[in-house]
Design goal:
By secondary structure, the chain is of the alpha/beta class. The chain contains five helices and seven strands; from the N terminus they run βαβββαβαβααβ.
């Protein structure tokens, strides 16, 4: 059925449930997996076409790289324990778009990810990456909660 599953994670407890579900599904289907974490780039606030606030982007980049490494290491260990082949990737960009682009580039035929189920003002302010992936993806998406 599915031959290559993309598992998207952000390192949260809920995302770890999706990682477990994706790995177990991959094992039952004898599928390979790719785990991806996407880090949004540091953006300068722009006013009248000029940067209004500059940040220490090097520190930010170093911190997100280390966090991604730790999260992907945990996913890799879980894959090893499950007996599933798993490539891990850290991508920089907008999460939903990068998840879909990575799935396409890697030839994945299923995306597994979590949904935090935010509602109301929190959903408006933070958005829903899962909903965006669902609207952009041309392959099935398994949403874990």
């Amino acid at each position: 059925m599915y031959k290559h599953i993309l598992i998207a994670t952000d390192g949260s407890e809920l995302a770890s449930k999706a990682v477990t579900a994706g790995l177990e599904l991959a094992k039952s289907l004898n599928a390979r997996t790719t785990a991806v974490i996407v880090s949004e780039p540091w953006s300068a606030t722009v006013a009248d076409g000029h940067p209004a606030f500059m940040s220490p982007t090097r520190d930010y980049d170093k911190a997100i790289e280390e966090r991604a490494r730790q999260i992907l290491s945990t996913v890799g260990s879980a894959a090893n324990k499950t007996g599933v082949a798993c490539e891990t990737l850290h991508v920089n960009g907008f999460p939903a778009e990068c998840i879909v682009e990575t799935a396409q580039a890697k030839g994945c035929d299923l995306i597994v990810m979590a949904s935090h189920g935010r509602r109301g003002l929190t959903k408006l302010l933070l958005g829903s990456q899962t909903a965006r992936v669902l609207s952009l993806a041309t392959i099935p998406v398994l949403v874990c909660r």
